[in-house]
Design goal:
The complex is a heterodimer of chains A (260) and B (397). Chain A is an alpha/beta fold and 260 residues long. Chain A is built from ten helices and nine strands. Chain B folds into two domains: 8-59 and 363-395, Urease, subunit C, domain 1 (Roll); 61-355, Alpha-Beta Barrel (TIM Barrel), CATH 3.20.20. In chain B, the strands form five sheets. In chain B, strands 8, 11, 12, 13, 14, 15, 16, 17 and 18 form a nine-stranded parallel β-sheet that branches. A six-stranded mixed β-sheet of chain B has the order 3-2-7-22-23-24, covered by helices on one side. Chain B has a four-stranded mixed β-sheet with strand order 5-4-1-6, with no helix packed on it. Classes of the chains: A alpha/beta (260), B alpha/beta (397).
Chain lengths: 260, 397
């Protein structure tokens, strides 16, 4: 796993967007040749989406032959609810780009049969990316932890009873099947998570740590998020920054595999 | 998935939605405004046509509830070719962003009503002209003392309420607004009956006190015709009809106001919009001379002389109709009151729609609303194109 430490959240957004731009450009998607990617929601990736929209407006990137899969959706929240991830994806990304609506997949948290919906999603992913070796968890219904409900209630009029208690979410095993994984971590409040992800062993309490075993995972963070890391760890990865820069330049992915 | 025709996206524009001008695309299909998110996720299709709209503001189409004519046509007088005249004005209005209007007849004799009124039929707009919402009948049930440009000999009292009114006008099927003076004998009963029939009653050309005006509102009136004009001036012991703007009536009162730069002083416009913000409706009160040169015209039986765009009853100093269309009124109003552009545009669209009770389908760019709108140049506010029910009905050259 590579760790890329940048100055601030803006730099992380810029780097992540350029990484996506580089990957899609090199892949050169077209009819019968689709680039497939998973998409996150929430505050952290917002900046990346905005930069990608800029690139699209500048004519540097097209999503016409890109297939996307979103990572999660609340159960039982109306699609048009401003906290739903359908709403988020439409307003923050999809409506600004040229993606084919039939190729932008978001889990349906209002499906009559949620188990079948998860399976449908898994099948779609498999179909888009070929069969993968199954690791642990797959797309499933997840009951949200109490502290998650607490944290989310500010988006629901501070009424915890209004926060959906369940969500559909793509499992770590599903994401592990991806050829490449990019994880964005910004802000001091994520510092502990980053330390657990990088400096300790694979641990189910800190799911991001699973990507230590992924052959092509890159973690992009800002300085604030490194507060709980050892100085040694930070210095090691910062010393590699020139190498990391090549990842978003016109260097083929094959060549990049030697970078660590 | 069932395929439907004509999914059109107006791209890269600013639109007026929820009283704010926001950067947002506007999507329409089958004559109505639609929710693109629903189309994206459920139908999973893209737009059939994308219209690029750089530097454009899209506003709901203008609704003019008081217009006596234009381009040489006088709705109250020309009885030979009523339909031709209406059509001429309806078409010409498209260039001014007007998508719906209420042809207005001033005080006329019974014969005129009989000949003209049945021929002005409520009509859905299209390329041939703006939607006709219904006729606005202004007079003859008005106050002699506040006749303005109306003919004195033709003014009547609605003594027997609705009976007198129907006796004068004939069928009211084509009528949407009646302007009358509430202090006249029989007026309150008439207001009640008309309101019950679904016709909006506007108070105007009146010497009514505030108490009499409030009685009018209690009986169903919800409009004031061309505020400040043809009514008592504001008096602090009896504010008269103008006082309705701040009276504590249960429902919202709406008032038409002429902001052609001539009929109403900018300070008066500001007084109005600051005391009753939601009720302000821009009206053109335009007449035959609109769109033409200075010269001699008529409003109903009266001769009118236009000099430098100002219209007077010939040989007098009595101001009568204006020569400015609603798009011009929006610009003048914004300039005069320094209000937000959102407010100026809503005063010519949402507010009249509310006054007529049609704000569930007109006056907004919300999902499900009629696709009646106007594309304005973002800076000059000049009309670039006008659309009715999703069809482009006017395009500036």
């Amino acid at each position: 796993m590579r760790l890329i430490i940048l100055e601030d959240a803006d730099a992380v957004a810029e780097w992540a967007a350029r990484f996506v731009l580089q990957r899609i450009t090199e892949f050169a998607p077209g009819p019968g040749r689709r680039f497939v990617m998973g998409l996150p929601t929430g505050g952290t990736p917002l900046g990346m989406y905005r930069r990608l929209i800029d690139f699209h407006r500048q004519g540097r990137i097209s999503f016409k032959y890109v297939t996307t899969f979103n990572m999660d959706e609340y159960v039982g929240l109306p699609r048009e609810h401003p906290e739903s991830y359908h709403y988020y994806m439409w307003n923050e990304f999809f409506k600004h780009i040229d993606i084919d609506p039939a190729q932008a997949h978001v889990l349906n948290g209002n499906a009559p049969d949620l188990v079948a919906e998860c399976q449908r999603f898994e099948d779609l992913i498999k179909e888009a990316g070929g069969p993968g070796s199954s690791l642990v968890s797959r797309t499933r219904i997840k009951t949200l932890a109490y502290d998650t409900l607490e944290a989310n209630k500010r988006f629901f009029g501070n009424d915890i009873s209004k926060v959906p208690a369940k969500a559909l979410t793509v499992g770590v095993g599903t994401v592990m099947d991806a050829k490449e994984v990019m994880i964005l971590i910004t802000g001091a409040h994520k510092a502990l998570a980053l330390a657990k992800a990088v400096e300790e062993g694979v641990n189910h309490m800190w799911t991001v740590s699973a990507f230590q075993q992924h052959p092509q995972a890159v973690l992009v963070c800002d300085d604030d998020a490194t507060l709980e890391l050892r100085v040694k760890t930070v210095k090691y990865f910062k010393a590699l920054s020139d190498e990391h820069q090549r990842m978003i330049e016109q260097v083929s992915v094959e060549h990049q595999r030697v970078v660590h | 998935m069932k395929s439907k025709s004509g999914l059109t996206r107006f791209h890269n524009c600013y639109i007026l939605r929820n009283s704010q001008i926001i950067k947002e695309d506007l999507w329409i299909r089958d004559g109505v405004i639609i929710d693109p998110e629903e189309i994206f996720y459920e139908e999973q299709v893209g737009a059939d046509v994308t219209v690029r709209c750089d530097d454009v503001i899209i506003a709901p189409g203008f609704i003019d509830i008081q217009i006596n004519g234009g381009w040489g046509v006088d709705f109250s007088y020309d009885q030979e070719n009523v339909k031709g005249g209406i059509q001429k004005v309806a078409k010409a209005l498209l260039a001014h962003g007007v998508t719906s209007f209420c042809p207005t007849m001033v005080t006329s004799d019974k014969e005129k009503y009989k000949k003209i009124l049945p021929q002005i039929i409520k009509t859905q707009g299209n390329k041939e002209g703006a939607t006709i919402l219904g006729v606005h009948l202004e007079g003859p049930f008005i106050s002699l003392a506040k006749k303005g440009a109306h003919t004195e000999e033709l003014i009547r009292n609605p003594d027997k309420g609705l009976d007198t009114i129907e006796e004068m006008y004939g069928s009211l099927d084509n009528t949407i607004i009646v302007t009358l003076a509430p202090e006249l004998p029989g007026a309150l009963s008439a207001i009640k009956s008309l309101s019950n029939m679904g016709i909006k009653v506007a108070l105007g050309h009146t010497s009514a006190s505030l108490a009499q005006s409030e009685e009018g509102v209690k009986n169903g009136a919800n409009l004031i015709t061309h505020l400040f004009n043809a009514m008592l001036p504001f008096h602090h012991r009896d504010p008269g009809l103008v006082g309705l703007l701040t009276s504590t009536t249960e429902k919202q009162i709406y008032y038409g106001i002429i902001s052609d730069g001539i009929h109403t002083h900018p300070a008066a416009l500001r007084i109005a919009c600051r005391t009753n913000r939601e009720g302000l409706i821009l009206v053109s009160d335009a007449f035959a001379a609109m769109g033409l040169q200075d010269g001699s015209y008529r409003i109903g039986p009266q001769h009118v002389t236009v000099e430098n765009g100002r219209a007077f009853i010939t040989g007098t100093k009595t101001l009568c109709g204006s020569t400015s269309a609603l798009d011009e009124c929006v610009k003048i109003f914004k300039e005069a009151t320094d209000c937000s552009l959102e407010y100026a545009l809503e005063a010519a669209s949402l507010h009249p729609a509310k006054a007529l009770g049609i704000d569930y389908k007109k006056g907004k760019l919300n999902f499900g609303y009629d696709a009646d709108f106007v594309l304005l140049h973002a800076k000059s506010l000049d009309v670039k194109s006008t659309w009715i029910a999703g069809e482009c009905v006017y395009q500036s050259s």
